[in-house]
Specification:
By secondary structure, this protein is an alpha/beta fold. The protein folds into two domains: 131 residues, Aspartate Aminotransferase, domain 1; 245 residues, Aspartate Aminotransferase, domain 2. It contains 13 helices and 14 strands. A seven-stranded mixed beta sheet has the order 2-10-9-8-5-3-4, sandwiched between helices. The chain has a three-stranded antiparallel beta sheet with strand order 11-12-14. Bound molecules: pyridoxal-5'-phosphate.
């Protein structure tokens, strides 16, 4: 099919040309001075994106799933307790990874479509008078449901309960797209991958680690070798890694940090918020329902749409792929077959969003869903016009 395929999934996202070009340089010696400068730039630049001056950045070749593992094995011991807030497919995965290492996981189970209720977290922590819970696990932006939880409120819950548990937060689909503040929100480990807000291909596991988490790491007994962050931090002081690093991705990461800095983080967040609202208005104008019910928890990186009754979302997504080369996110976990997800994150502008929304309208209609063609686009366009800033 001529033209570009429409990758409207919630990550991996489109990689801007200048990042592709940055990654296409020849590999350099990963123990030489040029490489050391590259590492320092990446580590410093990432601190800005995590909004931290105090945390240490750790980068591994890996993925978001690997970052869960790195976060857990470096901070906890088998037999220790952790409170896992579970409100979707990815928070389930984070909790399961902890359980696989012998951590006693106490689940705070929430319906798909809900955010993490800070008051319930506070109640659990207050009940734990012996401070047996060593960590609270939260997914900032649950990518399976399009729900963003209030991490600042969870921090405040920990503080009100005067509980010393570590706050471990997955920011895989929110970092560099939705405001997230490691220092201000007292986050002990924030973990992510490169393929969403950072606009890179997949292939890294990235963590921001507080002093408190580093100290916990000195006592943590989970078995670890590859994911042990101590040798990485030690070798990073000399601009090296204890293994062969993903040099091309680091070239790309340096460029991605330039791209983000040029736009400015506040503007990056505002752009995501505006495109997300346009998308939600389009979906609602088509008479469809959002999976996220609380407008304060709407995700600005993706929208999970409930498939109309009588239609299967897996079949619809295959149809969109086949007919228009449009890729949408599938329903995951409990909402498999019931939800499709529109990604609107990373390197994205108004016209690209509108193109994707036109594709959603066209393919829903040709799939048999009753709707007024153009109703969604008109709602999105109205909103984009109302909120347009003069260039
Ligand atoms: C919130 C969240 N956590 C973890 C992951 C797992 O990351 P990866 O697929 O890079 O292993 C994803 C992937 O989409 C995610 O969205």
């Amino acid at each position: 099919m001529p033209g570009r395929p429409f990758l409207q999934i919630p990550g991996p996202t489109l990689v801007p040309e200048r990042i592709v070009r940055a990654m296409s340089q020849s590999i350099i010696d990963h123990r030489g001075p040029k490489f050391a400068a590259l590492v320092r730039e990446c580590l410093e630049g990432l601190k800005g994106v995590f909004q931290t001056e105090k945390a240490q950045i750790v980068i591994y070749p890996g993925s978001g799933t690997g970052a869960w593992e790195a976060c857990l094995v470096n901070t906890l011991s088998p037999g220790e307790r952790a409170l896992a807030c579970v409100n979707g497919h990815f928070s389930t995965g984070f909790a399961r990874t902890a359980a696989a290492y012998g951590i006693e996981v106490e689940r705070l189970d929430l319906p798909y479509g809900a955010g993490v209720p800070a008051d319930q977290v506070e109640a659990r922590l207050r009940a734990d008078t012996a401070h047996q819970l060593r960590a609270v696990l939260v997914v900032h932006n649950e990518t399976s449901t399009g729900v963003t939880s209030n991490v600042a409120a969870v921090r405040a819950a920990l503080d009100r309960a005067r509980h010393p548990a570590l706050l471990l937060v997955d920011v895989v689909s929110s970092l560099a797209s939705i405001d997230f503040r490691v220092d201000e929100w007292g986050v002990d480990v924030a973990l992510t991958g490169p393929q969403k807000g950072l606009m890179l291909p997949p292939g890294l596991a990235i963590l921001a680690v507080s002093d408190k988490a580093l100290h916990a790491g000195e006592k943590a007994k989970c078995p670890r070798a590859y994911w042990d962050w101590a040798p990485v931090l030690e070798r990073n002081t000399r601009g090296e890694f204890p293994y062969t690093p993903a040099t091309s991705l680091l070239f790309g990461l340096r460029e991605s940090l330039h791209v983000l800095n040029e736009e400015g983080l506040p503007q990056v967040f505002a752009r995501h918020a505006r495109l997300a609202e346009a998308c939600r208005r389009a979906i609602l104008a088509l008479g469809l329902q959002l999976l996220c019910r609380n407008p304060h928890e709407y995700s600005n990186t993706l929208t999970a749409v409930v498939m109309p009754r009588g239609f299967n979302s897996d079949a619809y997504i295959a149809h969109a792929n086949r007919t228009l080369d449009l890729s949408l996110g599938v329903g995951l976990g409990d909402v498999k077959g019931k939800v499709f997800r529109i990604g609107h994150l990373g390197s994205l502008n108004e016209l690209e969003l509108l193109g994707g929304l036109a594709g959603v309208e066209l393919t829903l209609k040709s799939f048999g869903v009753k709707l007024d063609l153009g109703a969604g686009l008109a709602a999105a366009e109205e909103y984009l016009l109302e909120t347009a800033r003069p260039r």
